[in-house]
Each structure stands twice: as structure tokens, then as C-alpha cells.
Amino acid sequence: MNVKLASLLLVTSFPGLASAQPAAAEAPALAAIRSRVAAECAAGSFSGVVVARRRGEIVYRQACGFVDAARSIPITLQARFKLFSLSKSFTATAILRLSARGRLALDRSILSYLPDAPETWRGVTVRHLLQHRSAIPDLTERLLEAYQNGGARTHAEAMDLVLASPEARAAALAGVPGADWQYSNFGYELLARIAERVEGRPFAEVLRREIFVPAGMHMASVERPMTGPGPLAAAPSARLVPGFNGTPAAWTRADSYSFVQQGAGALHAGYRDLLAFDAALGSGRLLSPAMQARNIGEAVRVNDDVRYGYGWLIRTMNGCTYWQHSGGTNGYVSEFARAPEPGLSVIVLANLGFADASALRRDLLRALLPTPTSPGACRRG
């Protein structure tokens, strides 16, 4: 995706570790995780923010690492990161909110909202897109070309160019809509375009009205391209920390065009935004309890261990059901998990594309979820 990388110098200094402050009398499992994260930051294999909250109380919070290649400027808890595919959870929530108000119907053909889409896609519904069961080929690269070569400067312009292109017209479905699960970035771009059509405004504004404002996500934003003459690039974003690829010994600055994927990966946010999103879901401010129950009850099988609901992977640990999504590799990785029954949420945001955020998410959940035999055990079934 035309990613530019620049070689950067490694300098061995670690002031970023000062922001990792353990809580008093921290549980041994959490203390071990804290020490491990600090060691990974010192080795250059992790850089970011790690937070866990249980029943409204922050039980783990740590920031360490750097925002520069010279490793002289430490990351702080105010940092914002690119969320990449974690953005899909927000897109899905916005679509469900529009559905709840009758603005769109989950089981209607997407051609009801995108009449310029290929006729061969008529059997695809909004629900199929939400659950990655559309069988529509991934045309994300064509979307990038619409910006690079087609003159598009908005998501609406780029999507309309793609839908009218010979590639889209010739793109046969990969199967029967609704039959099989196949992860699709482009499916979430179609959802974003549907929201733009039914609301008559850019998808960034849809997210602001449907999610950011009611949830109190004060630092969240949607990446946008630079306007005017010059090369294609993302517009500056306040407090967004630079992302890096490479290895622990040699970081290289990452450059990405996240604005191309408004529905699938364009969000910038800090950990407080994710906690606000979690709280708004937990209180029913964004989605009714009935709608949230459907996220689990109507989830489709991915494999023996995972199901996919509406913008969330549904997993279990210690007998507890939790919702999870991850994002990234190009300069950033993100992990967000929420277990509604014990009221637990875990967030890992890193500005290294090679950081192992999923291991941290799993270890924190294992340390903080109630065990099957504990007094606070999750209900079975």
C-alpha cells in the first residue's frame, strides 16, 4: 500500500519507564506483567499504553516506551494511537444504532442503499457485511487507487469510483452470501458508504454523532487526507504518536494511509476513549441490552474457539464470555477486550507494529477474570 519507511537511529536510554507506576499492593500476577512490560520497553520490543478496568475501577495502568526514534521522548498516558481494524467495532456500533432508529434495515439488500453497486451483489445484506459473510471480493486496493490515480479526496468519491469501476463490475462473489465467514476490510467500507448515503454526511461525522459524542470520546477522531495540491498523505492529528516498524534493535518510521479505510481502520484514539466507549456500551447509552445480547446470540462461527458478532470476535476464558477486536501491524497494534458480566475491560495500544499486544491482552484477562470456582464466577451457558 505504498508504505514509506525511513531508517532511524537506536539510542539506548529509557526515561519512558518512569511513567510505569505500580499500584500499591498489586497482585503478583499483575506485578509480573508490569515487570515484563517494562523489560520489553527497555529492550525496544514494546512501546505504548496498557490499561485494565474492572467494575469502574482502574486496576492496571502503565505507559512506557517512546515517541521518537532516538528514544528520548517518553510516551505518556495522553498519547493517541491509530487503531486500524479495531475501528470496525465502532463502525458496527454506528450501523446498529442507525438500524435501531429505522434508518436502515439489517436484512435488506445493500443495493437498496448503494444502487450503483454491481447487480451480482443483490443477495448481500447489511447483516452479511457486518458479520463478514458477504462473499464480496476485497477491493481495498482499488480504493487506494481511487485516491492515488482517480483524483478522489473523500471516502464517498473513492467508493463511488470503485463501485463504478470495471474491476467491481467483473468481481464475482466468492461464494453464497451468508454461507461462509471471510474477514473483509472492503465489507466495512461498504458499511461506511451505506451510512454516508442514509445520513447524507461523511462517515467521520456519522461516527462523531453516533459514537464519539454520546459516549464522551473526547480525544477520538477519524483520519483524513491532506487537501489541496501535493502528494497523498494523512492530515496532522493532535497527540497522535508516530508509529514504527522494524525490529527491537532498529525501529523504522511507518507511513500509512488509514484514511482510505474510513469504515475498516481510520480511527485515532487514546485509552480513555476506549474506556468511554466501553462504559457507554455497558450503560446501554449506545445500544440497548437486547441489541447487545444479539451480538452474542447471533454470532457466527469462525472456528472451534471463536465466533463473530457485529464488529466483535466473541471468545471465552475462565468460563466468561468476552468481546474482542485487534488492529494493526504497520506501525501500530491495538487490542481491546471487554467482558460485560464481570465488568472487565482490557486495552493495549502500541506504536510498534511488531509488538505482541495479543499476548498482553490474554495475560491480563487471565489474571483478572474470575476463575470458574471463585465466588464471582461467570454464569455458564
Q: Would you give an account of this structure?
A:
With 381 residues, the chain is an alpha+beta fold. The chain folds into two domains: 6-84 and 215-368, Beta-lactamase; 87-202, DD-peptidase/beta-lactamase superfamily (Beta-lactamase, 3-Layer(aba) Sandwich), CATH 3.40.710.10. It has eleven helices and 14 strands. The protein has helices at 28-43, 87-100, 126-130, 140-148, 155-163, 166-169, 185-199, 203-215, 271-282, 289-297, 357-368; strands spanning 6-7, 48-54, 57-64, 81-82, 221-222, 244-247, 250-253, 267-269, 300-301, 307-308, 313-317, 320-328, 333-339, 344-350. The chain has an eight-stranded antiparallel sheet, sandwiched between helices. A three-stranded antiparallel sheet has the order 1-7-6, with no helix packed on it. The protein has a three-stranded antiparallel sheet with strand order 4-8-5. A hairpin with a 2-residue loop joins strand 2 and strand 3 (57-64). The chain is globular.
